[in-house]
UniProtKB/TrEMBL annotation:
CDD domains noted in UniProt: EPSP_synthase
Annotated compartments: Cytoplasm
EC number: 2.5.1.19
Protein name, as recorded: 3-phosphoshikimate 1-carboxyvinyltransferase
Native source organism of the sequence: Hydrobacter penzbergensis
Sites where the protein binds phosphoenolpyruvate: K20, G90, R118, Q163, R335, R377, K403
Subunit structure: Monomer.
GO CC annotation: cytoplasm
Gene label: aroA
Amino acid sequence: MIVTVSPSVIKGAIRAAASKSSMQRACAAALLAGTTTTIVNPGNSNDDQAALDVIQKLGAVVTKEADGNIVIHSKGVAPLHPEINCGESGLGIRMFTPIAALSAQPLTINGTGSLLTRPMDFFDEILPQLSVNIQSNKGRLPLKIQGPLQPADITVDGSLSSQFLTGLLMAYGAAGANGAVITVNNLKSKPYIDLTLQVMQHFGWEVSHTDYEQFRFQKVKPAPAAFTYTVEGDWSGAAFLLVAGAVAGDITVKGLDVYSTQADKAILQALSDCGCKLSIRPDEIEIGPLSLKAFHFNATDCPDLFPPLVALAACCEGITVIEGVERLAHKESNRGLTLQEEFAKLGIEITLQGNLMLVKGNTGMKGAVTHSHHDHRIAMACAVAALKANGDVIIEEADAINKSYPDFYEHIQQLGAVIKIQK
Ligand SMILES: O=C(O)C1=C[C@@H](OP(=O)(O)O)[C@@H](O)[C@H](O)C1
Ligand SMILES: C=C(OP(=O)(O)O)C(=O)O
């Protein structure tokens, strides 16, 4: 798909999409809960669909109701197929691998696209300590595993990704690992673990931790006959809408929980620091442009904010400094480099200095042909920046957005952005 975004002024109100982080965790918890779960406000991104497919292959029955809710019936992990495929979802593969390993059946775990090149060697090291046989493709996919996983006291490294810990926490919780301790060194993306623990608590699993270093499992609360879980609005996708408002018009974004544990709620800090018009209420955020100035932001624990932050920084006077570049190497693309390459086409100079990204803003953006590198957040960053360019910005492989936010172009179109979509 090729999308052309013309310079535009936007206005109006829009509702944030469902969070794939919240939705995928809910799917996993519903599978593990072994009862009936109704998911309200379910997401429809590719990653969400992959999670629904995985839980069905692991034995859950999924039905879509007329009101849009999804109902999941489960009797726990009981694989119906020898292979599961997590699509392109990093969270999916890293969360569902330990969960699938709760079963004694031999299973192959695979993915597609960029996931095939993302590191999984964590599992080579950790799963054998939990009595799971694993054979990976030199630390990449596919993984061949055979459980059942037996929780034990272990020490893991949390510096590459929090997603492995999310999977272990869920699997240990479901296995009733009372008293077991997971010790984590150097955990990054900590708020994502808060979200995991919050979803687990909703489904009755209590985990305590001391400063994200030692995680202990407590007795499981007796499960109710059925659960209902409402998927949160997505701060990660909404960060692009909020930045679009800060640079290109007065808009209102609804459906975001300002008390959410989602990491990317931190976009509010950057928006407040750059001096845009910002009014935050529990049910809606109003945002609009003013004279914008460069800011300093540490994105180590919210790495998905880099792309919208770069689009924002490109419109701010001065040099914006964003910390945490080391967290970007293993996402759907190497985002430090892809942001540098694509924004250079728009006329924006980005310098990478070790763990720092420096964005020289307000130097004028020009129309150009950009490429998503099949990375949803790169496509969305280019589209938002395009609103302030002096000519049309073409985005090649623009359909990458389907991974997290399939309605993104429609949403900014509804706000008045001039967009041409060629399928
Ligand atoms: O748990 C999650 O939902 C996610 C965790 C983060 O990954 P890392 O923990 O690898 O930073 C984030 O980048 C990813 O998009 C989603
Ligand atoms: C990196 C991302 O997701 P995941 O790691 O789950 O594929 C993302 O959504 O930007």
